[in-house]
Amino acid sequence: MTLDSLRLVRNILLRAVAVAFVFNLFMALATFALWDTWTGLISQWFHTSREALGPLMAYFFTAVKFYVIFVLLTPALALHWTIKREMAGKVA
Length: 92
Hints:
Order of helices and strands: HHH
Strand content: under 5%
Shape: rod-shaped
């Protein structure tokens, strides 16, 4: 792969991390702000108890965080360091 294609993939991954962070923050704020409304709707639609929704939401946000860190951010950082090393090798 060329250096430009590595930069493109890195930039896409870093932007995906930023979008995922903003989207996750928005979902968390909406969930906590409208907790009473959502628990009633979710309990009726999916036949889950209100007591089970707290751990489910904690699991969901934890899974999103692990996805963003290990699937998006880790390869982006690896590409970033690879590009820095390649650029340092070209300058010297």
